[in-house]
Every structure is written in structure tokens, then in C-alpha cells.
């Protein structure tokens, strides 16, 4: 007689990940744990840290350039940073919830440990939760300032149409561009606008930094499709991974991850960004490391994707942090004159 198939449990002692069995609820019910897993907390780390870094950089930059009157800076500026970062995180949480509701068929194949395939959360409930978060984030955004609200609205449009009809996720390569724009350019412009909305369209700095981030993410976002390759193919989603294979995808994505940082010197020479930002070019070496991890394709033992996917987010976080630090100490950094 055949033995009954037991539920697969990944033993990760002391670590709270979606792969951890739902029987280990600790202080949460299965439903509460499932709702939190819909938000995919690890992926929220990047937008929170990146947005806060860009906001602080914007505050200092616009103060140093005279675009921001000292009298306009509240002593509670850090509250504005926290509220805006929380709003951006809410949009990302809503996007993650909506994406899982829309991808339930694919997740049953490649990610059966997620809350919807496990029956912990219903797809309709996940969608409802996403819509509530979207609405709350938008209402909160327009109270910060007009342009922050506009960019949050655009991010919502991109993330909704990524998962729902016309479902840009299913179109080859467009899916990578569609997800990179809100997480790169629009997210950075939204963050910059918290303190720099008055001069947003007269200064190239946030647009160049956002453009660098977007181009990098266009290449780096291919990493999220590695473990979903077969499931995407079965459910009709066309990605570079399931179309041309892993190694060719890595080669196609390498220029997108490498050239934005190489072009930092060109941006400086064209006076689009200040010369103290030249250390950002060093991230090209981390892009080469990411390329190596993409080709290797090793799966993470704790997170729900390959190592390259998590490192892609880490590089993005450090890029934003480095930009903020360079801006904070711009008057103390010894730089070459590229003019």
C-alpha cells in the first residue's frame, strides 16, 4: 500500500519566511500570517530604505542648492519622511497582494507554499485587501503634496495593469520594463518630490538617478522569473527565461545592469549630475557579480527565489544609500573635475 503524501515542510529554525510551515504560527493565526505573507515583507525592505534615502538626499540637496527655504523645513521633517515611505510601502504591499491573487494558477505550480494556493487566503480576499491598501495609500499621498500624489497614482496604474488586464506581465520583455518603471523612476521621483517638488522639472538629478535605477531594474528584474520559468510557460506568460533560456537572458540583461553605472561619467560631463556622484559608477562591479549569480541560478534556502533575486534588491538598496551619503557629504568629498 502506498504511503500517504505528507505536506512538504522546509525546516528553517528561527526564521520567518513563506516557506516556513503554517502550522508554526507563533503569535499569529494562520489567516493573519497568510495576510502578512501576501505583502511579501522582504520585498518591502527595498522601497522603504530606497525611498527614505532619496527623501533625505532630496532635502539636503535642495537645501544646499537654495531651492528649499530653511524656514520651510519643519523640525519634524523626519515624520514626513516616515509617512511618505510608509505610503510607498503600502503601494508595494498592495501590488504584491494583487499579483498573488492574479497569479494563483502559476503559484500552484511553482510556489505552492504561498497563502492562496494553500487555501489560507481566498483570491477575492487578496484582491479586496489590495484595493483597500491602494485607496488608503492614494488618499494618504495627496495629503503630502500634489506631485507625490500624482506619482503614487502612476505607480498604482503600472502595478495594477501589470497583474490585471491588459496584464502586461504576459508580454515578453515588456513585463520587465513595466515593473522597473514604478519601482525605479516613479518611486524615486515620488520620493524626491516630498521635499523637492518645487524644482522637480528644472533639475536633472532626480531624473538621471531614476533613469539609472530603472535601467538597472529592467535587467535585474529577470531574476524573479528564474524559479517561475515553467509555471509561466504553462500559464501563458512569456519571459526571457522561458523563451531564450537562463544564460542568454543573463547576457541580454547584462548591458541594462552595467551601462547605467558606466554612463555616470557621461552624465557628469554633460552637467546633468554633480561630479561628487562619481562613486556610483563603482556599482558596475556589483552588476557583474549579479550577472554571475544569474548564470549560476542558485536557489535561496530561506527566501522564495534565487540568490540573484535577493542580491538584486540589496544592490538597489545600497545604490540609494550611497547616493544619499554622497549628497550629505558632498561639500567634504574630494573629487576630480570632469568639466
Task: Please give the CATH class.
Answer: Mainly Alpha
Distance between the termini: 79 Å
Which oligomeric form is depicted? single chain
Total helix count?
A: 14
Averaged pLDDT: 88
Q: Which H/E pattern describes the elements?
A: HHHHHHHHHHHHHH
CATH topology value: Farnesyl Diphosphate Synthase
Description:
With 339 residues, the chain is mainly α. The chain has one domain: Orthogonal Bundle (Farnesyl Diphosphate Synthase), CATH 1.10.600. It has helices spanning 30-39, 41-64, 77-102, 104-110, 123-141, 146-163, 174-196, 205-220, 229-234, 240-244, 246-262, 264-269, 283-296, 307-328. α6 (146-163) packs antiparallel against α7 (174-196). It is globular and about 55 Å long. The model is unreliable at 1-16 and 334-339 (pLDDT under 50).
Which tags fit this structure?
63% helix; 14 helices; single chain; disordered C terminus; 339 residues; globular
How would you summarize the topology of this molecule?
Elements: H1 30-39, H2 41-64, H3 77-102, H4 104-110, H5 123-141, H6 146-163, H7 174-196, H8 205-220, H9 229-234, H10 240-244, H11 246-262, H12 264-269, H13 283-296, H14 307-328
Helix pairs in contact: 2-3, 2-7, 2-14, 3-5, 3-6, 5-6, 6-7, 7-8, 8-11, 8-14, 11-13, 13-14
State the gist of this model:
The chain is 63% helix and 0% strand. It is mainly α and 339 residues long.
Amino acid at each position: 500500500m502506498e504511503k500517504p503524501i505528507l505536506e512538504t515542510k522546509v525546516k528553517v529554525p528561527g526564521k520567518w519566511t513563506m516557506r516556513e510551515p503554517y502550522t508554526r504560527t507563533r503569535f499569529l493565526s494562520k489567516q493573519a500570517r497568510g495576510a502578512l505573507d501576501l505583502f511579501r515583507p522582504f520585498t518591502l525592505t527595498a522601497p522603504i530604505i530606497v525611498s527614505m534615502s532619496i527623501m533625505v538626499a532630496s532635502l539636503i540637496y535642495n537645501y544646499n542648492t537654495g531651492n528649499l527655504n530653511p524656514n520651510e523645513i519643519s523640525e519634524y521633517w523626519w515624520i514626513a519622511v516616515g509617512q511618505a515611505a510608509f505610503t510607498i510601502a503600502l503601494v508595494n504591499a498592495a501590488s504584491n497582494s494583487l499579483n498573488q491573487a492574479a497569479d494563483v494558477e502559476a503559484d500552484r505550480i511553482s510556489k505552492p507554499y504561498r497563502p492562496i494556493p494553500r487555501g489560507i487566503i481566498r483570491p477575492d480576499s487578496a484582491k479586496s485587501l489590495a484595493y483597500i491598501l491602494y485607496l488608503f495609500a492614494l488618499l494618504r499621498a495627496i495629503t503630502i503634496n500634489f506631485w507625490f500624489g500624482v506619482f503614487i497614482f502612476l505607480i498604482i496604474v503600472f502595478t495594477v495593469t501589470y497583474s490585471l488586464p491588459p496584464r502586461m506581465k504576459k508580454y515578453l520583455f515588456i513585463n520587465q520594463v513595466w515593473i522597473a518603471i514604478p519601482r525605479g523612476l516613479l518611486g524615486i521621483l515620488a520620493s524626491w518630490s516630498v521635499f523637492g517638488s518645487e524644482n522637480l522639472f528644472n533639475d536633472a538629478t532626480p531624473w538621471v538617478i531614476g533613469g539609472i535605477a530603472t535601467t538597472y531594474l529592467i535587467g535585474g528584474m529577470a531574476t524573479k522569473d528564474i524559479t517561475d520559468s515553467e509555471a509561466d510557460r504553462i500559464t501563458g506568460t512569456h519571459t526571457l527565461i522561458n523563451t531564450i533560456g537562463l544564460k542568454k537572458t543573463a547576457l541580454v540583461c547584462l548591458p541594462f545592469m552595467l551601462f547605467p553605472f558606466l554612463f555616470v561619467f557621461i552624465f557628469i560631463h554633460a552637467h546633468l549630475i554633480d561630479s561628487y556622484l562619481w562613486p556610483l559608477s563603482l556599482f558596475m562591479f556589483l552588476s557583474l557579480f549579479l550577472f554571475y549569480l544569474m548564470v549560476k541560478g542558485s536557489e535561496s534556502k530561506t527566501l522564495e527565489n534565487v540568490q540573484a533575486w535577493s542580491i538584486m534588491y540589496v544592490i538597489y538598496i545600497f545604490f540609494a544609500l550611497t547616493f544619499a551619503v554622497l549628497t550629505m557629504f558632498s561639500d567634504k568629498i574630494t573629487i576630480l573635475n570632469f568639466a
